[in-house]
Amino acid sequence: MPDEQWQQTFRDRMRGFQRRRSTHLGAAALSVKVRVVSGCFHREHSPHAYALIDRLQVPTDVEIVEHESGPELLVFAAVAAAGFSLAKSVIELITAIIKARAEGVKRGDRPADPLELVVRRSDDGQEYREEVILKIGHTDAVDAAAIEGQIEKALQRLFKK
What we know:
Radius of gyration: 15 Å
């Protein structure tokens, strides 16, 4: 579990995102982190991946925050009768980032350690929840439907009261 100072920084980042994107009434803000297991996944060490990432279409209601360990997507989960879900465009963006990392490694980006897909949220009551939902190597097949399914299962657990 991250320390209290990091959790406060995370809560502040999420509140800022919600303020900037306040048009999503009834939707829940969350973070989807594409994190390298060990080492770095940022522009300096992954220039080929970021050249591809920079060309991606980012939905207007998504923010990408760059970190040394990998990009973090600030997104809204839609609330429906069946539970929570992410927009198809967000799933496609996550899939494209993972594929860009794999392609970058093929072209020489280092390190080549596996990625973890992490879903995180913080609510107004100061509760912090995080779940690593997928670990994927740069040679593993990337399946958007599987990613979507894992995210939806995680959302049900993360938003469970």
